[in-house]
Amino acid sequence: MKNWKYFVLCCCICFAFPVLADDIASGCEGPYKGKKIAPEQLKEILKQHEELYEEKGGLEEKDYKDNRYANLCGADLEGANFEGANLAWANFEGANLDEANLG
Fold this sequence. Notes:
The chain is mainly alpha-helical and 103 residues long. It has one domain. The chain has two helices and no strands. It has helices at 4-26, 39-56. The termini are far apart.
């Protein structure tokens, strides 16, 4: 019975992680929250993001309101290919990036 504290701690951690992940994504107000993005659509989103970045010579916090800004928070991007994309200032908060190619 000496190890019961460790058992309780492990149970708390195991049950807390899914709740914490939901809390992180719950602050997301992006248009793709909870949605799987098709490769063609992602390519267009990243193209518009790059155009905005080039037009402004970089991005700032105020640019978050521009529709061309890549707000991918909470999106399901599992297996997505970001190779060669400009991801500067893109928002991936709470997004699923499992097996995504970020290089």
